[in-house]
From TrEMBL:
GO molecular-function term, one example from the UniProt record: ATP binding
Name of the encoding gene: htpG
Family under the similarity heading: Belongs to the heat shock protein 90 family.
Protein name, per record: Chaperone protein HtpG
InterPro entries: HATPase_C_sf (IPR036890), HATPase_dom (IPR003594), HSP90_C (IPR037196), Hsp90_fam (IPR001404), Hsp90_N (IPR020575), Ribosomal_Su5_D2-typ_SF (IPR020568)
Keywords: ATP-binding, Chaperone, Cytoplasm, Nucleotide-binding, Stress response
Coiled coil: none
Binding site for ATP: 32, 36, 77, 82, 97-98, 169, 339
Domain Histidine kinase/HSP90-like ATPase: 25-179
Organism for this UniProt entry: Mucilaginibacter celer
Amino acid sequence: MQEKGSISIHTENIFPIIKKFLYSDNEIFLRELVSNAVDATQKIKRLASLGQYSGELGDLRVEVAFDADKKTITISDNGIGMTAEEIKKYINQIAFSGATEFMEKFKEAKDANEIIGRFGLGFYSAFMVADKVEIQTLSYQEGAEPAFWVCDGSTEFEIGDGILEERGTEITLFINDESAEFLSQYKLQEILDKYCKFLPVPIKFGTKTESVEDGVDEEGKPKYTSVEVDNIINTTNPIWTKSPSELKDEDYLDFYKQLYPFSEDPLFWIHLNVDYPFNLTGVLYFPKLKNDFEFQKNKIKLFSRQVFITDEVKDIVPEFLMLLHGVIDSPDIPLNVSRSFLQADSNVKRISSYITKKVADKLAELFKADRKAYEEKWTDIGLFVKYGMVSEDKFAEKAKDFVLVTNTEKENFTLNEYKDKVEANQTDKDNQLVYLYTNNPAKQDSFIQSATKKGYDVLVMDSPIDNHFISHLEQKLEKTSLKRVDADVADKLIRKDDAPETVLTEEQSTKVKDIFNKAINKPAYNVQIESLNPDELPVTITMDEFMRRMKDMAAMGGGMSFYGNMPDNYKVIVNGNHKLVNRILQEEDEAVQAQLSKQAFDLALLSQGLLTGADLTEFVKRSVSLI
């Protein structure tokens, strides 16, 4: 039988476009051809289970091989095979999907969705790397004759008699010079590991050497010998295809190590398994994040029926969930024909909402089941939860019951618990509840001590997301504001009616202000005389809470660049009731007045980490002279 003809394209001659531009990454040719081979293998398995094929199935597998000298790559299977007529139908008529027709025909059969092929175009990705492609195939159908097909990358093809003697298909690619990199054991193994690691049919790629036990030596110790075995590159039943009841913690941890070999063990995980209103399986892991906020994006891998598609899942997974690791597998996620890009679809939004809900439910379950264990993990997961709350309202609504705040005594509270703790003492004269926080307990220790002397509690808000989380809390919590503990002197952080009376006259206050302005001589520092508790520091330096917060957000890239570019301005609060101020007023020598004022100012700078360089050296020398 000899026949020649032209490939039939349903609309126009798009073959050059398919070859050159349809696929964004030429290495996916191997994914497509191996997936098609798996597809063919799944079909024969399904037909046998339905009683429509009674022959021996044999050892169902797909094999990939290459010959560097002949410049060929061969993908073979012992699946359903094709007749010459089916080659014309499925290969020559571009965009007709054999798998789609098969699923429609057997849609009532269980697990018909295992069939991978959906587009009918995957085969032609072979011409991205090959000058010529040959097919040898033999259909499973009784009495079928082996068939042969060849095409040189034009719209011309040739069909003839084949040479296969057993059921299946063998596709040979004659690699072009530009794609010679693929004629490499390492390169092909790399691609197979990336895309085919979890396909449901064994994929053989050459052989490998293994050591096997071979008796014992004279001392009774095991002897080992090296043997060549098939190199099966994939795990055909990964854990996300199994029921959680079949799995132990070790199974999840082993799979995590398989995905991320050099990572620490995850904190916990969520097994996804839903079949309505969409199909979705997978396992998502909570990694140890700490406070570095390094976005480990591209750590969630998207599969479609166990074929790796991409690790760019931002359209499926909300931004805050990108911090998770793991696998999502769904045949219902719409892809373009190259399987390279997600397409807008209502299923994507529903899947995103489902995953968000599952994550929130898991965290709530952990919190309720073992509060102590949850608190021990909070250092790792707190960043994740806060990030989720500021970015996703639906998550925030659920998370408000299990988000924790931690004070300087390392005590953890839910939001309701913390309100009950501080409400009585930290409500100001305007009936506004004020939460105090520090973002650097060591640096702001003097301010923390001043606050705690007044019976105030101080939260630790030192993660990179906390600037945004603080704003979130102020929006969501009724009549509540948050102030950094060094935003003002302790007496003014939470304004009460019982403010200390001033001991200075108006004339004395003016004089003290002039003395300090002359000693400081820096326009960015605005001197104010305040009536404070005599036990407070003589001088305190603060930045306006709003301005400081905007600058912190600008430093994080929070869209506040206008504030980030503004010069720093500080308030220099001089405690008019402190004994040092009285000493300065009584001192007749202006040089001594200036020296005492500058020393008090530099001490305030030092407490804020603002005293550096030559000013710090001068302060040290002055301190020595005053001893």
